[in-house]
Amino acid sequence: MMNGSQDPGLPDVLHIVGRSHGRENSDICGKYLRGGTVYGRAVYRQRGSTTVIRYWPPQRRWVIDREGLRESDVCAAFAADSRDLPHPAHPELIWCVWESRMQGHVADTEVIAVSAPRTVTIVGRAAGATDVINGRYDLASVCHGRPAYVHSRGDLCIRYLKEEHRWIIACLGQDNGCVAFAEAGHFQHPGHIELEWMLWEAGRGMFCADPGMRALVAPTVVRMAGRRAEAENARINGSYTLAGIMEGRPAYVQPGTHHLIRYSSRTDRWLLDTDGLVEPSLASRLYYWIFRGDLNAAGERCAAFSEASGSEHPGSSDLDWFVWESRRGNFLLDQGVCCTTAPPSLQVSGRAGWRENEFINGEYALAGTYLGRVYYQKPGTHIVIRFWPPRSCWLIDGLGLQPSDACSAFADCLADSESPADVCSSWLVYEATRGSHLADPCVAVSPSGDDGSAQMDEQMLCSSMC
Q1: Residue 129 binned pLDDT confidence (cut-offs 50, 70, 90)
Q2: Domain check: are 287 and 365 in the same one?
Q3: Are residues 381 and 413 in the same domain?
Q4: 3-state per-residue secondary structure call for the chain
Q5: How many domains does the chain have?
């Protein structure tokens, strides 16, 4: 019935949006990851739960099922599919969601599955009257069959204007007019660097091109971790904030330093330059420098590098980093170093206090790298959350770091998962009475605390990098 074949024409990620928060079954909304096929159709699993979107042939419908893969038409929601679509991210599908009051599934035309990134970031608008455009926009709904995004402040939106075939940036709730637009072309979402944006210039009474402004899909913060404190160039460790675009890829700076992570098209590498922003004028003119493509100004110097291998941003633990060693006069692979989107701390919650292994609850801090991923440790204890490659899962281990799958709890994840907050199953906790791990749907792992570097993002996007 199920296989893991991967069709490149299928989206790897989709989102369910539109079910109002607080309504019954509103938790079907969220991010779903592709994982194999059933009956010749793609299967998508909601991150952090057992809920899946699967195809049910007897009734020719897509179903959202909390119980995962099974032979049943019982579901929280479904959409009839008369066109034999290969995946459910099509705007013409009408989803019917279960409502206990009606004792049946009721059509909710606001619910839709869309293949689009969760966030889009606008960078590069120079400081001034319209620099408020810069910042992170989160997927909120669908408009004319395409994703719509709302600024993290809640005042602006990016949406598709069908009549003019444009992406526009407008005040939330404004039906007419906009502050910026870009011709949509063949792009199905606005997070493409290639889009050329036109900004309204009140002083000139017209829309004018801004070559520095770009929309992109990239994490706002990445973290370098794993370089030993006593080693040369240990200063590469730390958080780096999205600050602009270089050679068609995102560039990151470490707040309070001259450190810069950027892409080099000449070598197809990610470069980490600890003196990348030394020249006072460089930061203030970075966008001019970027879009001129003046590689001579930047050079290829760096303290560490990784082969890009087609990656859209440097925040992937699958990338290998080579770090400069003066004693050897060469760059050497450091298998402990990784660049990741994992958060600096995590909160484990939900295990009842009266149940076995309730000690897994609590705060965990990023402590280093192990077996190709970051690991987290509960302060003052040996308890860690670590990645186990053979099974592709995250483990909570009371005995610390060990080359074993022995653990108190675990959750499966995709092979490219960057942190224990990115899992695709419920957490299973060991029960001595049963002699096995049993699912505890109450257990959750989520990012915690404030990330100071992320808070600087919006200011840096308009002031220090334009």
Answers
A1: low
A2: no
A3: yes
A4: CEECCCCCCCCCEEEEECCCCCCCCHHHCEEEEEEEEECCEEEEEECCCCCEEEEEHHHCEEEEECCCCCCCCCCCEEEECCCCCCCCCCCCCCEEEEECCCCEEEECCCCEEECCCCEEEEECCCCCCCHHHCEEEEEEEEECCEEEEEECCCCEEEEEEHHHCEEEEEECCCCCCCCEEEECCCCCCCCCCCCCCEEEECCCCEEEECCCCEEECCCCEEEEECCCCCCCCHHHCEEEEEEEEECCEEEEECCCCCCEEEEECCCCEEEEECCCCCCHHHHHCHHHHHHHCCHHHHCCCCCEEEECCCCCCCCCCCCCCEEEECCCCEEEECCCCEEECCCCEEEEECCCCCCCCHHHCEEEEEEEEECCEEEEECCCCCCEEEEECCCCEEEEECCCCCCCCCCCEEEECCCCCCCCCCCCCCCEEEECCCCEEEECCCCEEEECCCCHHHHCHHHHHHCCCC
A5: 4
Specify whether 70 is located in the same domain as 89: yes
pLDDT digits (tens, 9 = 90+) for 5-45: 445 578 888 999 999 888 999 999 998 988 888 999 999 98
Tell me: do 296 and 395 sit in the same domain. Answer: no
This prediction has a pTM of 0.79
Does residue 452 lie in a domain region?
no
Q: Whole domain around residue 363: which residue ranges?
A: 345-447
Final residue of a structural domain among 114, 132, 158: 114
Of 54, 88, 114, the one marking the end of a domain is: 114
